[in-house]
Design a protein that fits this description.
three-stranded antiparallel β-sheet; 6 helices; mainly alpha
Length: 165
């Protein structure tokens, strides 16, 4: 059983045992320190930081739930912000990834002004939002507004874990 509401609404009967185990590990990820860091630095108020933490778990779950994805997934700006807080705690992030079953890469794209790349990033972000919406229902617009931009304005990418169960 999932302990929080991050994965409420998912039909667990349709998941494999491996998928259920990975979602349980994601659900157990304690993001209290990252939430507190965002609140104490005035990057987000507490309610928004808690919501962004839930949406980070949902974003990371896409690699578990979706086989044969069309595009790499791109987080929202707020999801990426809390993900960065988690990644900066390298020991915690490494231990989480080991417990999760695979390292989850975060790959900033090379900065570019190429219109084709910009269009692709928009398609990727739209695809990400569509996948999350289909899996979890309505998206909170205050979290899923603009897509994340890393490395001088280029979009961030998420490579799903390899060897999914």
């Amino acid at each position: 059983m999932f302990t929080h509401d991050a994965f409420a609404g998912i039909d667990r009967a349709k998941l494999t045992g491996g998928q259920r185990a990975q979602l349980k590990r994601l659900d157990e990820l304690d993001l209290a320190d990252e939430i507190e860091s965002l609140v104490s630095s005035d990057e987000m108020d507490r309610d928004l930081a808690v919501l962004a933490a839930r949406e980070l778990k949902r974003f990371l779950a896409l690699g578990v739930l979706i086989d044969g994805q069309t595009y790499p997934f791109i987080p929202s700006l707020l999801v990426d912000t809390i993900w960065h807080k988690l990644i900066l705690n390298t020991k915690k992030y490494r231990l989480f990834c080991e417990h999760f079953g695979d390292f989850i890469d975060h790959e900033p794209a090379a900065p570019t002004r190429n219109d084709a790349v910009t269009k692709l990033a928009g398609e990727n972000y739209g695809y990400t939002k569509q996948c999350i919406s289909e899996a979890f229902g309505e998206l909170p617009e205050n979290v899923w507004g603009p897509g994340a931009k890393c490395d001088r304005g280029a979009p961030c990418w998420s490579k799903p874990p390899c060897g999914k169960p």
